[in-house]
């Protein structure tokens, strides 16, 4: 008998067909996110759950007594309460690798967009403010030949380093739990302690996954160590920084600008202080959001789910659940 799974979001037709070949699929088809009560009802019979970003905690797991696998369509899995999942005998999978180049592209979009004030000056043109006397009021700063500090030199970090060193002639610094000799050799990347990287880099890109160790990693002290001309990019998770400290740093000119794809609260609420800052470039968590990459991620998540339900080793089990 096919296992029953619950899919809580729209996924490409090809992915749904693949899932239907192997599973009995219950799918949420509304545009709005499935409400918690409804989710609990739908999970009562499910052995597998395909989601993205939904918090998996004791309360949810208590409502899902048959659940064996949660497969997230994301590389980040900070929404998994690993301890709770282990207690309930539920494993977790995620979707690394297929999104690396796409996220690295977006990091560059944030760097270039912040440095050359792309969104701000687009608004300037649309608002009819462009005039003959314009000059240095439109100036930005260079990305090419500048120094780049990457915090979190995983696969995405390396894809950013490659673009930076080989495409933009940048000097790459990095900070990571472990040294990356290959990246050092290929991109001339220099390993640095965090404080050293912060004070030495024109661009600081945060890519470290959200864990207990990285929560609030960049706060008032760290922004204070950056150059006043520095541009800070966050493409990891909102909680890896102290957002209030960032806002203060942007308001006071402690740093020049920030390019953000992630926030402590998503979607960003109306009236959020970041919205009033012209030196903040704000994107709605779209790091991996191209059609092809999102399709690849959904298919990988489906393969993870099916393999795990069939008792095979899934392509990408979350490391904490590996033996
Ligand atoms: C991820 O995959 O973790 C990206 O942040 C998109 O959610």
From TrEMBL:
The keyword Cell cycle does not apply. Residues 6-318 form the D-isomer specific 2-hydroxyacid dehydrogenase catalytic domain. Residues 108-287 form the D-isomer specific 2-hydroxyacid dehydrogenase NAD-binding domain. Keywords: Oxidoreductase. PROSITE patterns: D_2_HYDROXYACID_DH_1 (PS00065). The keyword Oxidoreductase applies. It holds the Pfam family 2-Hacid_dh. CDD domains: GDH. GO terms for molecular function: glyoxylate reductase (NADPH) activity; hydroxypyruvate reductase [NAD(P)H] activity; NAD binding. Signal peptide: none annotated. InterPro entries: D-isomer_2-hydroxyacid_DH, D-isomer_2_OHA_DH_cat_dom, D-isomer_DH_CS1, D-isomer_DH_NAD-bd, NAD(P)-bd_dom_sf. One of its GO terms (cellular component) is cytosol. Belongs to the D-isomer specific 2-hydroxyacid dehydrogenase family. This is D-glycerate dehydrogenase. It comes from Paenibacillus pinisoli.
